[in-house]
């Protein structure tokens, strides 16, 4: 069973709205074990919509059309489906009554053009679930010598999601017969490049290519690190879970400590949890990252039990005045060490973490743009590490942020033994 | 000139990533006056990619392919384009050298598979702009009896955006020849709701509906504020500029001081410029925003001449210990005032700006989630303002950030007279 998604709306092509509906539907289809090979966006134009629907039907068994079911003149999904079916539109009195009642319950007058939403192609069925004024449609189509189907759902996300979940997916699964489930697990990593990860995982990927039991994909996500996604297809949940867990073990074995978490873990949630279980508090001194590390950590609810606070001594004399750092080059290991120790002392924290560097575009205190020194003060000892990112200012600051948090993570892991 | 967008990546179909790249490209094409009727997403599969590219070429003059240029085995956009061109892939030594140098500058070893990124279809040209390791490609194709073109750009947004802006759009416009220009101007605002703005601008929008000389659209952008986009279509730049400037004046007249800038202005760049021209320095004390204000301001190159620094006293006793605030309720006007005054004093700044509140999901010190107090210390006097956002934690922190910066902005404007 193959199903495509066609999102309708000129505003999608113009970039005025990002098409999150197709992504959501794609995820649901994958979880239901239904293959989906193409997604298309098309504007509010009858000929182009008709062409897009027909092409999707030629390639697949089913098409979910999202959007264009509203009451305004540019809402012509009904017309395009009727054209593809070779059927007429006919007003459905029961649907018209349902829409009228909906306005009545909201104490609102129904604009006359809302009744166009009750027009249904002859041969199509109206979905039982109708959260808004737009009815969803199940439209059988004979195409390329086979019985196929178009589902029409509105573009309003919460209406669409209920209809897809309660009507479209069950109908698709009934048509597909016994099915497979698709489940995935994402390993979150920091420390290897994308190509480095691919090299480490090459033997496992070759093995999976041969067995077909799972796939591995990579995704670079800036400050969120590099993601390794394992996806398994199996007859049921238990079988999929077994495959995922076996592949995950093998992947972790070769990637090693660069795996900082899985699925919804973030670098900041992992670091906070490690600090918490070690009974340690954290203080930050951020210069080149300018508050980004603090902003990330405080995004996690409950961070205050571990994070004491931060100082951003952006003006150089403050490094001395507030943090007690010596009057040395601001982009140096000495400064990073002194800032980390100062953060711990001034903020009353067990651990001090610092950044100082040159974010760019210009060099700073003799350091080339992209240079970041990270200082860590832990258990009475200090260490400083230099990294260099040959990138734009925003990326230097973001990658400096995750690299600093990752240094703290690896040291806490080593300390826990 | 018609141009389609094809986004490549199985992760897009599976809904693991939302395809924001196509939306961004669609917006740029619209602004450049280039029609775009379809956007397609296709997985990492050679046959399906080839089919998607060929179909897009059949319908349009140009195709922008986004993604699949990385170094891993599933990055096969190069192969699919070569297949469509009927050309071979050949390693480009200059590109290989460029990639090697990039790793060298980052002090990192280049994994061998990165070299596959230097494979170029014979007849294609490598783009001059190459922000990352993936080179962009300009690939001429003879199709349906006409000379057409495929542009290949990476899926990493910041790399893609530079290549599209600096290479693809100019190339497309050169091919399109004389045309109408579409120009737009974005007013950046904070202080009115989207429907409030629509009401204020309703008369002007009705006038524009009648004349057709321009359109006005609204876009809510979180911490970036609410954008009002004016778009004019005219025979040439001068005519478009005249329309934009007339509509802008009328829009500014009704929106008033809530317009904080235009186009590339950001709230942080505007606030830094106002401080600079007033000869004032700034110190921050952030609790509920946890470093976000500092992170925003330090994102602007050269912020250090105005921004002294920040203290994030996340642990309550630090508000007293570091900033000298009295022992009062942490979410109160007294605390906001004391933090602002303390920030000015401790950080040696002329102006102190503070935030304290309950970001949620739980209430904090008796304050409901979503409560944000903003304190401002300026010219020896203090003021505190309370706002409430009935939203999730992330939005509370983001909207608190822009609201605090906006308070400072309006006071600096009033002070400048």
Explain what the structure shows.
The structure is a homodimer of 417-residue chains. The first copy, chain A, has helices at 10-13, 20-31, 46-59, 77-85, 93-105, 157-176, 194-211, 237-255, 267-278, 292-298, 316-321, 333-346, 393-416; strands spanning 3-8, 38-42, 62-66, 89-91, 119-121, 125-126, 137-143, 146-153, 181-189, 214-220, 226-234, 259-262, 282-286, 307-312, 351-357, 371-378, 381-388. In chain A, a hairpin with a 2-residue loop joins strand 16 and strand 17 (381-388). Chain A folds into three domains: 3-176, 3-Layer(aba) Sandwich (Molybdenum Cofactor Biosythetic Enzyme, Chain A); 181-262, Alpha-Beta Plaits (2-Layer Sandwich), CATH 3.30.70.2860; 267-416, Alpha-Beta Complex (Maf protein). With 417 residues, chain A is α/β, with parallel strands linked by helices. Chain A is elongated. Chains A and B meet through helix 2, strand 2, helix 3, helix 7 and strand 10 of A and helix 1, helix 2, strand 2, helix 3 and helix 10 of B.
Key words describing this protein structure:
homodimer, 417 residues, alpha/beta, Molybdenum Cofactor Biosythetic Enzyme, Chain A, Alpha-Beta Plaits, Maf protein, 3 domains, six-stranded mixed beta sheet, five-stranded mixed beta sheet, 13 helices, 41% helix, elongated
What would you call the structural class of chain A?
A: alpha/beta
Percentage of helical residues of chain A? Answer: 40-55%
Largest sheet of chain A: 6 strands, mixed
What percent of residues of chain A are in strands? 15-25%
């Amino acid at each position: 069973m193959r199903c495509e998604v066609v999102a309708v709306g000129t505003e999608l092509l113009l970039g005025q709205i990002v098409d999150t509906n197709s992504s959501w539907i794609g995820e649901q289809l994958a979880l239901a074990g239904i293959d989906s090979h193409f997604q298309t966006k098309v504007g509010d134009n009858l000929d182009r919509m008709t062409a897009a629907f027909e092409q999707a039907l030629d390639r697949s068994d089913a098409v979910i059309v999202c959007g264009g079911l509203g009451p305004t003149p540019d809402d012509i999904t009904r017309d395009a489906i009727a054209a593809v079916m070779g059927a007429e539109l006919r007003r459905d009195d029961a649907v018209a009554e349902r829409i009228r009642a909906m306005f009545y319950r909201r104490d609102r007058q129904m604009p006359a053009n809302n009744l166009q939403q009750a027009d249904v192609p002859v041969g199509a069925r109206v979905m039982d679930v109708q959260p808004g004024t737009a009815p969803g449609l199940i439209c059988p189509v004979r195409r390329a010598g086979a019985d196929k189907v178009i589902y029409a759902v509105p573009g309003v996300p919460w209406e669409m999601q209920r209809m897809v979940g309660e009507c479209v997916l069950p109908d698709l699964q009934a048509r597909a017969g016994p099915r497979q489930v698709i489940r995935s697990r994402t390993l979150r990593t920091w420390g290897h490049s994308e190509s480095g990860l691919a090299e480490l995982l090459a033997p496992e990927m070759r093995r999976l290519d041969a067995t077909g039991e799972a796939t591995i994909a990579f995704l670079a996500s800036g400050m969120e690190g590099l993601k390794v996604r394992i996806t398994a297809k199996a007859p049921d949940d238990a079988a999929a879970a077994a495959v995922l867990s076996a592949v995950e073990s093998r992947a972790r074995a070769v990637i090693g400590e660069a795996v900082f978490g899985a699925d919804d873990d973030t670098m900041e949630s992992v670091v906070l949890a490690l600090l918490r279980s070690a009974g340690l508090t954290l203080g930050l001194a951020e210069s080149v990252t300018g508050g980004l590390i603090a902003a990330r950590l405080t995004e996690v609810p409950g961070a205050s039990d571990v994070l004491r606070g931060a100082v951003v001594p952006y003006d150089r004399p403050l490094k001395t005045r507030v943090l007690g750092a010596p009057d040395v080059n601001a982009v140096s290991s000495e400064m990073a060490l002194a800032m980390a120790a100062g953060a711990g002392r001034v903020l009353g924290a067990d651990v001090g973490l610092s950044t100082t560097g040159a974010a760019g575009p210009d060099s700073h205190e003799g350091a080339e743009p992209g240079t970041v020194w990270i200082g860590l003060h832990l258990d009475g000892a200090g260490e400083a590490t230099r990294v260099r990112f040959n990138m734009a200012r925003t990326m230097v600051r973001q990658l400096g942020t995750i690299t600093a948090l990752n240094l703290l993570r690896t040291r806490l892991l080593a300390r826990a033994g």
